[in-house]
């Protein structure tokens, strides 16, 4: 009995400290109605084949019959993001649901570890959490949906920080087909508080009170830009979700340049009211109608009228699987990341190299490949950062700081070696913790 209690205590401790974030809703694929302490959906996705990260691997675990994520047309979806279901109103203990943050923790830094941010714990206006997004696909058959079918319809710049989070829904969405739509929630954190990890979950959803009559246009990959200060490189109209650092990506950037659901990729804070916009503004909704976010969601962004898209640039990432159709020199790009402007026209299957993670015995299975990959990645980003410093078109957040950091790495082989070794250790630590957590959770369930 004592061993069982110890295992359960260890599992609960790991869940509260090492877990990450999920948007909890009964319409979620993978929802366990029998487990008020559910935590598996919060595990991060990285270096995975398509069938393991798509719908977080839960595509064959649909929600219960009649359960939908309800999105009110022109209204606000009141979501709950947390590192464990027990912390939300879906849990069974009231005393666990009193926290205001997505993941509370002990000490001065609270639950920052789970939220991967450099923001100060308790901040009323966090800046480094990078935002979450909700996307929709107008297809009721989950097996017919492709990644490029999902259009981001709402973002929240300060997600995940506060547990209760508002997602404002556009008013001109059309009704869902019979059987409902499918939605996805996604979050990718800043590289300065951990890297590679991204989070994505699927839901059966429905748009309530919908009066729109125009189908959503096919969304495009979101370009890196600087909304609303400079929209010249922003993707016009609907944008796809960020599928990154796994197989079958639409963003092939390396681990030091993750994509976000905020102004750095042209997303408004709140409802995406430009879904039907066209190049030149022939058909466009005004972003000034976005309601001010509350409940910890920050202020709404000002309006913008993107006029054109930017030239595509040839680029391929270590984990991307698509090739662009057009090329241009890196110096002609107005964005701080050449790979963000790629027009993908093909999808192929790649094999994920599992030796990218250092074995637990400390051997150097693929150190040469890792070093070469890291060197190419840093060189590319250093060149882009240099180009951006002389560009008047696009300003990027912390570009100067990033440029100095990359230059230091390029000029010091020793620093480069330490930098890569640190990331290798982090990968292995995360892998080990994930395995330990899963083992302990299963052990505790078997002994209950």
TrEMBL record:
GO terms for molecular function: metal ion binding; monooxygenase activity. InterPro entries: LPMO_AA14. GO terms for cellular component: extracellular region. Its cofactor is Cu(2+). Residues 279-339 are annotated as: Disordered. Residues 1-19 form the signal peptide. It is found in: Secreted. Keywords: Copper, Disulfide bond, Glycoprotein, Metal-binding, Monooxygenase, Oxidoreductase, Secreted, Signal. Transmembrane segments: none annotated. It comes from the Eukaryota. Belongs to the polysaccharide monooxygenase AA14 family. This is Uncharacterized protein. It comes from Kwoniella dendrophila CBS 6074.
């Amino acid at each position: 009995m004592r061993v069982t209690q110890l295992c359960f205590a260890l599992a609960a401790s790991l869940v509260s400290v090492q877990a990450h974030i999920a948007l909890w809703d009964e319409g979620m694929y993978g929802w366990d109605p029998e487990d008020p302490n559910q935590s598996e959906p919060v595990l991060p996705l990285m270096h995975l084949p398509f069938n393991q990260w798509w719908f977080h691997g839960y595509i064959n675990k649909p929600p219960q019959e009649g359960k939908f994520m309800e999105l009110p047309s022109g209204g606000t979806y009141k979501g709950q993001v947390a590192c464990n279901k027990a912390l939300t109103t879906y849990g069974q203990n009231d005393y666990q649901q009193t926290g205001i943050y997505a993941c509370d923790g002990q000490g001065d830094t609270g639950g920052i570890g789970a939220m991967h941010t450099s923001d100060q714990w308790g901040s009323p206006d966090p800046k480094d959490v990078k935002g979450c997004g909700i996307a929709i696909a107008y297809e009721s058959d989950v097996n017919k949906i492709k990644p490029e079918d999902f259009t981001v319809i709402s973002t929240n710049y300060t997600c995940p920080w506060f547990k209760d989070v508002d997602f404002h829904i556009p008013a001109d969405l059309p009704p869902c087909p019979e059987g409902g739509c499918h939605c996805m929630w996604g979050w990718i954190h800043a590289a300065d508080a951990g890297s590679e990890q991204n989070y994505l979950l699927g839901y059966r959803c429905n748009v309530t009170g919908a009066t729109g009559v125009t189908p959503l246009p096919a969304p495009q990959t979101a370009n890196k830009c600087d909304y609303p200060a400079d929209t010249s490189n922003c993707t016009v109209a609907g944008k796809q979700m960020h599928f990154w650092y796994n197989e079958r990506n639409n963003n092939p950037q390396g681990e030091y340049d993750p994509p976000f659901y905020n102004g750095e990729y042209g997303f408004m804070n709140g409802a995406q009211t430009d879904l039907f916009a066209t190049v030149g503004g022939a058909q466009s909704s005004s972003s000034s109608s976005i309601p001010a976010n509350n409940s910890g969601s920050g202020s709404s962004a000002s309006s913008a009228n993107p006029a054109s898209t930017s030239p595509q640039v040839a680029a391929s990432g270590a984990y991307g699987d698509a090739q662009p159709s057009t090329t241009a020199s890196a110096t002609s790009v107005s964005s701080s990341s050449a790979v963000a402007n790629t027009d993908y026209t093909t999808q192929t299957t790649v094999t994920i190299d599992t030796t990218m993670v250092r074995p637990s015995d400390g051997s150097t299975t693929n150190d040469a490949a890792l070093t070469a990959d890291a060197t190419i990645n840093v060189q590319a980003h250093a060149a882009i950062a240099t180009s951006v410093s002389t560009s008047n078109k696009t300003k990027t957040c912390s570009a100067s700081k990033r440029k100095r950091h990359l230059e230091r790495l390029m000029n010091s082989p020793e620093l480069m070696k330490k930098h890569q070794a640190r990331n290798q250790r982090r990968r292995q630590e995360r892998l080990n913790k994930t395995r330990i957590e899963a083992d302990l959770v299963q052990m505790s369930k078997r002994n209950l």
